[in-house]
Write a structure and sequence with these properties.
447 residues; 64% helix; globular; 4Fe-4S; 4Fe-4S binding protein
């Protein structure tokens, strides 16, 4: 039988210790279910922390056995054979569980009471108040980034860039998005996330939020408002000019941090079709324009003492928060990881990504250079791109990659066996060929 018709080799059998680690993960998930089902507060706490311990030990153990005990290097074999990473039954079940959790978290938090109460002690020590559904979510979110970040460190340990980038998102999620906001509440200051800026954290420049921060935070509140405005309109253009959008999307942002760690097994699922590219352009930029419009309307309405627009601008902000801030970024953005890949929100919905992307495409020095003469068309780079970019076609032509959607994660370069791709902050003159090719592609795609 010709090689083209031979069946793919079977997936390697799991080692006994690997099975044991996965069993611990399953036992941890069972422990969370027992926490939900048990009404006794003492047993709730026992089940809950035992579950977190089993999940942590099992995940770390499996990651070490899977990647730490293998030779350094990224192997992509078996991704489309495994049910959990090829939209099989396991992927659909995982997606259903994640989606269901977000729906309950946002709109039916009372069903999570038995998971929230065991965290009261931890919440009191960190924030000086009982836990709520958002503290539960923050704990789960940070734990996921930490555990799957450890997996990424073992998987990409041969790449210094990937190691530093992974440590960076772990640090910002743990320190800036979890511990620091909690400590602010402990000292009776407004809760504030220093690693999130407008337009992603869209309400930080709304008149009501600005007034609340200044009134309740005094000098610190004024600094928070200044920090948010300066990061959005001064630091973001400067940093993007030198480093592209990667400085935020792949190094700082909590959404990107979860995508790069917990979402790493699903990065190959991103749609590479031209139809997906069309939808990307048609959705993300109108969302960016919408939040600009809402912010402007809110300030205009405030300037006229609510005479000009009344409650219309406020209702627009509420609907934006419901459809974009909750359903798109949470339910769809994370719940659909196992089906559509890890960057659905970043690619199609995030207004910060749109803002950074426009700066990166038209203003930044960042690019990914390619050496077409060395490309062997293996497809590893395109397969690894979580933003749906067909990297291979650029590599084959030797064209530099300057795309608004590229988050500069560098995994395409890391998985390339020939060193064809290189992340650079080069002179803008070197971007001319890329801009010409991209403009031609855009005209063809949108026509």
């Amino acid at each position: 039988m010709p090689d083209a018709y031979q069946l793919a080799p079977p997936l390697p059998a799991r080692l006994p210790f690997e099975r044991a680690a996965l069993t611990a993960v399953a036992a941890g998930l069972l422990g969370l279910l027992l926490t939900l089902a048990d009404a006794d507060p003492h047993r709730q706490q026992t089940w809950f922390y035992a579950a977190l311990g089993l999940l942590s030990v099992g995940t770390l153990g499996w990651s070490w056995l899977k990647y730490g005990q293998q030779p350094a290097g990224v192997r992509q074999d078996g991704l489309w054979q495994c049910a959990s990473t090829s939209r099989g039954a396991a992927a659909w079940v995982t997606g259903l569980v994640l989606t269901g959790f977000y729906i309950i978290l946002y709109w039916f938090p009372d069903y999570l009471t038995h998971l929230i109460r065991p965290l009261d002690g931890f919440s009191h020590s960190l924030r000086g108040r009982p836990a709520d559904q958002w503290f539960l979510y923050g704990t789960f979110y940070t734990l996921a980034v930490a555990l799957m970040g450890a997996r990424a460190l073992w998987k990409y340990r041969h790449s210094r860039y990937q190691a530093i980038r992974t440590l960076s998102v772990m640090f910002f999620q743990t320190g800036f998005a979890f511990i620091l906001p909690g400590l602010l509440q402990l000292f009776q200051k407004p809760e504030f996330y220093f690693s999130y800026f407008w337009p992603l954290k869209y309400d930080y420049l709304f008149p009501s939020t600005v007034g609340y921060l200044i009134d309740n935070g005094q000098a610190l509140g004024v600094f928070m408002v200044f920090w948010g405005a300066a990061m959005s309109f001064i630091a973001t253009p400067i940093l993007t000019y030198f480093y592209g959008k990667r400085w935020y999307c792949s190094w700082v942002c909590g959404c990107g941090g979860l995508a790069e760690t917990a979402g790493d097994p699903y990065r190959h699922l991103a749609d590479k079709s031209r139809a997906a590219w069309r939808w990307e352009v048609r959705i993300i930029y109108p969302i960016f324009g919408l939040i600009i419009l809402i912010t402007a309307l809110l300030w205009l309405n405030t300037a006229t003492h609510n005479v000009l627009l009344g409650s219309i601008s406020g209702k627009a902000a509420q609907w934006y928060g419901f459809f974009i801030g909750s359903i798109f970024s949470g339910v769809v953005g994370v719940g659909f990881y196992p089906i559509f890949g890890s960057r659905v929100w970043c690619r199609f919905g995030c207004p910060m990504a749109a803002y950074l992307g426009l700066l990166q495409k038209h203003f930044s020095r960042f690019r990914i250079s390619t050496n077409g003469g060395q490309c062997i068309s293996c497809g590893n780079c395109s397969n690894a791109c979580e933003m749906g970019i067909d990297v291979q076609q650029y590599a084959q032509r030797g064209a530099p990659i300057v795309r608004a959607s590229c988050v500069g994660c560098g995994v395409c370069s890391t998985v390339c066996p020939r060193g064809v791709l290189n992340l650079e902050n080069g002179p803008r003159e070197g971007r001319l060929l890329a801009s010409t090719l991209i403009h031609a592609d855009s005209l063809r795609i949108l026509s």
